[in-house]
Amino acid sequence: MSTQAVRVRTVMTSDSPEGDFDAKDKTDIDVLHEIGSRFAAADSFHTVLGRVVDFVASVVPCDSCFVYVLEEDDLVLRASKTPHPDVIDHLKIRIGQGITGWVAEHRQPVAVGRNAFKDPRFQTFNELPEDRYEAFLSVPVLSRGKLVGVINLQHRQPHDYSRQDIQLISTIGFLVGAEIEMARLEVENSQLFERLETRKVVERAKGILQRDLGVTEEEAYLTIQRQSRQRRKSKKEISEAIVLGDDLRRGKQP
User: Fold this and answer.
1) How far apart are CA 54 and CA 58, in angstroms?
2) Count of structural domains within the chain
3) What is the extent of the structural domain holding 231?
4) Domain at 42, CATH number
5) Contact assessment for residue 179 and residue 39, using Cβ atoms and an 8 Å cutoff
6) Same domain assignment for residues 102 and 16
7) How does pLDDT run across 31-65, given as a tens digit for each residue?
8) What would the pLDDT profile of 153-199 be if each residue is shown by its tens digit?
9) Which residues contact 90 (CB under 8 A, 6 or more apart)?
10) Do 30 and 147 sit in the same domain of this protein?
């Protein structure tokens, strides 16, 4: 039986005889059903992560919940229970850095009930006031054995995380890992497509400028770049305007 299956079975069953579920067992099954229903839809990357944060905070009430997503060699803060507009999508943690990085490196949960900032693995980030919180639970998010990210829960006051809390959040990490990974790949594919489209229109615009102005390819590109800065438009927008103007002059349909 796989590690994921073992963990799911641990959450779903109790010490009672097989098949004999008490009220708590039914609650756990409802939790797993809720996970499946919430993440079955194909939503955008940040929508998926926002749902993860909301769901985690609902099953284990906490003062803070972060979701970090592995991108190349860094864990990037992508979602938070509390607003952090200045650091969301910008704060990065290296694998092995701080408790979060340790969890990512070892793929094991860490629970610190009090004085989390005194843990030898702890690292302070001045941008996050949550670093002053007392309790800290961090679990890896995995998909088919591959690290996808890390989920962090924090409490302002000392908080003893139960074995069931740790198992439940770890199980959520297993179950949402594939959905997070798919959403992330969709974003990457969309960005790649956008870069290719931009490159195509810029190349066409450069050709038009070379023909009409009698300049080199490099000079044509610098002209587009300069117009982009002056007009505060993207190079793609400037290039599209050049192409559109050329089409209109030649009587072509845009």
Assistant:
1) 6
2) 2
3) 190-249
4) 3.30.450.40
5) yes
6) yes
7) 556 655 555 555 677 888 888 899 899 889 999 99
8) 999 999 999 999 999 899 888 888 877 877 777 767 777 888 888 99
9) 76, 77
10) yes
